[in-house]
Amino acid sequence: MKKGMIVGLSIAGGILLIVAIFISWGIGTYNGLVNKNQEVDKAWSNVESQYQRRYDLIPNLVNTVKGYANFEKSVLIQVTDARASVGSIKVTKDILDDPAAFQKFEAVQGQLSGALSRLLVTVENYPDLKANENFLELQSQLEGTENRINIARMRFNSAVQSYNTMIKVFPGILIANSFGFREKQYFKAVAGAENVPKVEF
Q1: Do 99 and 184 form a contact (C-beta atoms < 8 A)?
Q2: Residue 164, domain member (yes or no)
Q3: Ranges under pLDDT 70 in the chain
Q4: Domains in the chain: how many in total?
Q5: Where are the beta strands (DSSP E) in 27-67?
């Protein structure tokens, strides 16, 4: 009788140990996913912050350039329209879980980048404008912001890669599927981004 109880207790203890290990593993995996998700959210906030900085610089840049009477108005209209498109999109972190919304956001940001590139190329034909201190300062700030946007996007993609890998590999996929962790979108180069903007006069 005693031997049977000892065996029974040993089996029960073994089962409890396995259950405790499984629960511990599940908690650790869940917490790891939460941490990775927070890293993605933080990286996204940094991207948004840099895009907002660029968005805020544009009116000053456009107003400085407007002062030059013969400056191509179509270029200024393109920049203003692209900025308005960016401003019309309501951006929340939920955009990361919606591929269509993310692509739309990326597309309008790409249009704004293209319009700004055309503006800066066009400025080359205006020596007085290129020498204007306000313009030079704004151009410098814009170039610095574009560099920060690029770095923020790379860091975001790195955080997304780490997160997406964790939710797709076994056994993390079990916890991810159970608790609704979904794949995040990457920033990609906009189609045609490899081409230098063409400006015709």
Answers
A1: no
A2: yes
A3: 1, 4, 69-70, 190-201
A4: 1
A5: none
